[in-house]
């Protein structure tokens, strides 16, 4: 499933990967990289060597500043078991969809760092094959059923999460959808989006649906069968075992 060696790379990918290996040979976390990791880094910035190198250094800096690696697996599993993420299929362009149900995300109970690490792991699982790496992932945040306990007005936390997920992780995020986002979130996003790079904000779209069984809303997103089961789609199953299998 993973890209096993350089023979699986295209000429453009190989050129980018070789240059990145040379530039980042002294970076701590890249010493453990296999070919698939280098492919992910290259495509995270669409084979732009300079931007991919900058991302690698930013990721290293985040790992030093934020104790993300100290979040125990038990907290991550509890987060996913609560329904934070569900299995979904692919969008119309073939991107794997990483689907998050915000009603199961409570900032007071789930620290922002746990949410960041959970999302990083979900991204890694979605991008565990070369085809998905090249297309990029479609992140979907479903706000249906949320209440005040699910909302944070802490602009700092919103910015920290957006930067850590969108600009601090080695992943190719080519689409982000906010489904049924409430006014209060849209207002918070409007406040923080000018502080974020256009490379992140320009891939964001807002989608509305009634969540009453009518799947016409997804016509421009994916086939109805690719939706999660709770929305009437055909993709079901326990998310955490799937994630850990993909990450092995």
Automatic annotation (TrEMBL):
All residue ranges annotated as the CRAL-TRIO domain in the record: 72-239
* Family matches, as Pfam families: CRAL_TRIO
Q: Which InterPro entries does the record associate with it?
A: CRAL-TRIO_dom (IPR001251), CRAL-TRIO_dom_sf (IPR036865)
Protein name in the entry:
CRAL-TRIO domain-containing protein
